[in-house]
Amino acid sequence: MLLLALDTATPAVTAALHDGETVVASYAEVDARRHGELLLPAVDRVLADAGTTLRSVTAIVVGTGPGPYTGLRVGLMTADTFGLALGLPVHGLCTLDGLAYASGLDGPFAVATDARRKEVYWARYADPRTLLTEPSVDRPADIADELAGLPVVGAGPRLYPDAFPDGRGPEHADAGALASLAAERLRSGAELAPPRPLYLRRPDAQVPKNYKVVTPQ
Question: How confident is the model at residue 207, as a pLDDT?
Answer without folding.
Answer: 47
